[in-house]
Amino acid sequence: MTHPDTPGPGAVDARGTGLPPPGYSSSRRSGISVAVGGPDPGAYAVPWAVLEPLVPGVQASPLPTALASVTGRYLFANLPYCSLIGRDLVQLRDLSVADVTHPEDAARDGRALRAVASGQLSEHHIRKRYLRPDGTTVDALVWVGPVRDADRRPVALIANVLEVTGQADDSAGSLSGERSFRLLFASNPQPMWIYDLETLRFLEVNNAACLHYGYTRQQFRSRTIADIRPLDDVQALRTHLTASRPVLQHSGVWRHLRADGREIEVEVISHEIVFDGRDAVFVSAQDVTERNLFERQLMHQTLHDPLSGLPNRALFLDRLGQTIAAGEDGVVGVLYVDLDDFQLINESLGHEGGDAVLATLGARLAASFPAGVTIGSITQEKLAVCAGGLPDESGVMEFARRVQAVIAEPIVAAGGTEISLSACVGVTTATGPGADPAVLVRDASLAAAQAKQVGAGQITILDKDARPAFLGRLGARQELRQAIETGQIKVHYQPVVSLATGEIVGAEALARWAHPERGLVSPAEFIPLAEETGLIVALGRSVLETACRDAVRWPNAARSGAALGVSVNVSGRQLRDGQLVELARRVLVDTGLDPARLALEMTETVLIDHGDAVSLELAALRALGVHLSLDDFGTGYSSLTHLDRLPFDIVKIDRSFVTGMHGDPRHQAIVSGVISLAEALGLTVVAEGVETEVEAADLARLGAKLAQGYHFFAPMPAGQLAELLSESGGS
Q1: Nearest to 313 by CA among 339, 336, 283
Q2: Buried b or exposed e, range 178-210, using 16+ CB within 10 angstroms
Q3: Domains in the chain, ordered, with CATH?
Q4: DSSP track, 526-553
Q5: pTM above 0.85, yes or no
Q6: Closest-CA residue to 470 (of 448, 437, 438, 440)
Q7: Per-residue confidence at 20, pLDDT binned at 50, 70, 90?
């Protein structure tokens, strides 16, 4: 007959399994280390598979509990037991039960232990005194039972102890085993019961069990173990009862029913005993309902996105792996969903409003598809979806369109604002077992990136031929991030000169990537990558801090004696970031640079892309005292509008006009018109990309005053520029 309060129907087969070496520590339950028996050879003959199921229950028991070998050497003990006998866990490794027993009780205790270990006694109840290291004693009631292997042989001993407080009428040794056991049983604060091994009927329960379960002692005795199990456990119990008889010492967690109908989870530790002449099972129980609920909540928080409640990346990959392993007919489809322009929603509704939209979307997606479809949150704006059993690749694409349709359903945000979302979806598929979930998600993300390049609301299935190029970009992205963090990004400066005198009057800061293997990497290669990945914000911050710090150390111009200004490029992402004004203020304070010496450059494209949203940001920057420069003037569509509406101080003529100016009356007319317009508006003009003496002469003839380009100076490190200024007589 199988033990109905043990974790499984089969016996724990201990044969051929030995104990771990001294010092083994078990922490599955609560992290409490367990002492392991010392040099006694008998200790190491104990099969570990028999003892291991007992360890969590021993550790969790509030009652002092210990395990010993059949020769009496300590194997395990919980902290209450260690506290009772005044030894720590390490000391127990070299001790036996006799070592901690009062000499007057040791002989009688030893005879009883040997009888249990040999099988002559089914259990042993005794009142004895433990001897502490300081010479004091502890009076205790002790119950000792055998731990048996699959062949019913005692292979270890387990002891439960109850300290006796106050003066007792019985002298040590005079209390009968029956009386001591009943006192130990009845007074235990942990629920305990004894049931008949054949009928499963309760034979005895203690007061703690009656209080915790809500049954009277008479009600308990009229019931069986099956009566305190939930109905859906009854079939499992019947299966246990028809199985072969196992070794009856185990711990495990079971569901029980209280008298009020409440279901609780209980961790039990059980031993076979003889009670009133019957084969019986002694059970001690600990309610772990709240603990397990907390653990489940903690596990849920660990594996789910706190905002949407969807599985996070780790759980999604696990479920994707299960879907692949299930081996359903058809293919497994994996989608990577990248919401379009969600930053605009955050800017419009605030981050709390954006979070509410994402939470609504997550709940809607989870409710829109059957249980076999897993939807996970990868990052705030990116989701992953997997579904098995799809007919073919076209079926996966149809599934992706259904996901897009759910996303497109309007969401009513706070204040009644109706939000319509769209998303680019990357698609990849797996057929048959063996596919790597992480690789599938990565490939789907690459496909989503391909879709983003086409435009909003696109669906793209991975182009396998394009994978190497995308992986190369992914590697470059990681390299660039590391380059920014480790100082590989250097700042060079291209001087701005006076066309009339040739004197250096300022410089433009230009980022250069000093790659440890490739040397200087062209900005044309890494600046677009930085823009695409958002690393441009960190890159721009680094360049601004470096440029202001360097400019403070430059000597003044030789002839005019004026301090040199420095211009730093600003990207659209930096303007959208909302931190640029505070960044500029902090850098100016930290470096001590006069704000009038700093110019922030931005292109017309930035202004066109973001329209009126940049006006307040530019006004706040101008209020700091810094200059604003419109770069690449003439290449956009609304240049004159920008000059009239926004607070620019400087206009930089794009190099395309300068390069084609000589011999082309139309280009000369454009350059001349820009110069005249700028002067009329009180703006400073700088001509970019001057490569030849002829271009410089033409610009001077047309009235330009400032220029930069390789005809004058190539970009150079800050130290070289400082030397150049000093050599030219700068102060």
Answers
A1: 336
A2: eebbebbbeebebbbbbbbbeebebbbbbebbb
A3: 41-287 (3.30.450.20), 306-462 (3.30.70.270), 476-727 (3.20.20.450)
A4: HHHHHHHHTTHHHHHHHHHHHHHHHHHH
A5: no
A6: 448
A7: very low
